[in-house]
């Protein structure tokens, strides 16, 4: 599966996936999710040793394309959840490079990356409650584990922006970079990883994730039912209408 909305590049055993919808601030639609999921799930582990995930035009992603939230949803996993499951199941190290902003699922997907580097002027936001929604991406489980329950509660319930420095200090980021240098640094780390013995590298990641993987998938299922209900709620539909009116 290929798409102009996901750019792929392979170098030194590293697959770089670039979300490429700059006209929508790299908001991720159904086709883009499925392309990302296919790239991650079908990666040739004999040729590829690490994955870098980033966004085009110095912007990571504005999150889920809200237009898709207003379309009828199929039963079972959404396209976004299919992508998240591919990240969870991947035994290759995944390195994220964040420039500009990461919003919504643009933040929660980072919980499933192994290394996360951001420009020191980047910003983050998880606006589920302000949009009449609820946590997704296993953030109801993982975020408190990563940044502590007080910080997780603040970020998830208030839905206010937070800075790269705040994210780094909370332990959400692996490191900070100068603006414009995040992707090159992420690729450097990925190249270092790709030079390591591949079986030992993949086994070690599998061991680190072993105790959590089943719990994460269980949380995905739990969140899915509630998130689907919230999408149909009057609160969410009113929030979406307000968003599109403001953009008109």
TrEMBL record:
Looking up Pfam families in the UniProt record yields: ECH_1
Where in the cell does this protein reside? Peroxisome
> What are the protein's UniProt keywords?
Isomerase, Peroxisome
The record's annotation in InterPro entries points to: ClpP/crotonase-like_dom_sf, ECH/Chromodomain_protein, Enoyl-CoA_hydra/iso, Enoyl-CoA_hydra_C
Gene3D superfamilies from the UniProt entry: 2-enoyl-CoA Hydratase, Chain A, domain 1, Lyase 2-enoyl-coa Hydratase, Chain A, domain 2
For this entry, the protein name equals Enoyl-CoA hydratase
Q: Which family does it belong to?
A: Belongs to the enoyl-CoA hydratase/isomerase family.
């Amino acid at each position: 599966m290929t798409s102009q909305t996901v750019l792929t590049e392979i170098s030194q055993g590293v697959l770089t996936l670039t979300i490429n919808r700059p006209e929508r601030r790299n908001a991720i639609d159904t086709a883009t999710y499925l392309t990302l999921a296919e790239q991650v799930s079908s990666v040739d582990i004999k040729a590829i040793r690490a994955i870098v995930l980033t966004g085009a035009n110095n912007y990571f992603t504005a999150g889920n394309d809200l237009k898709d939230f207003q379309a009828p949803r199929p039963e079972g996993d959404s396209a976004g959840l299919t992508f998240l499951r591919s990240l969870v199941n991947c035994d290759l190290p995944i390195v994220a490079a964040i420039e500009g902003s990461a919003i919504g699922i643009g933040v929660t997907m980072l919980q499933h990356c192994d290394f996360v580097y951001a420009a020191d002027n980047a910003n983050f936001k998880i606006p589920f409650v302000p949009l009449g929604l609820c946590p997704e991406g296993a953030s109801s489980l993982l975020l408190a584990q990563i940044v502590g329950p007080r910080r997780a509660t603040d970020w998830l319930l208030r839905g206010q922006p937070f800075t790269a420095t705040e994210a780094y200090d909370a332990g959400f980021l692996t490191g900070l970079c100068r603006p414009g240098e995040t992707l090159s640094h992420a690729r450097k780390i990925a190249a270092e990883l790709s030079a390591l013995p591949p079986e030992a590298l993949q086994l070690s990641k599998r061991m680190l994730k072993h105790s959590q993987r089943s719990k994460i998938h269980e949380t995905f299922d739990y969140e899915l039912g509630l998130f689907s209900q919230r999408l149909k709620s009057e609160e969410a539909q009113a929030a979406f209408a307000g968003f599109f009116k403001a953009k008109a």
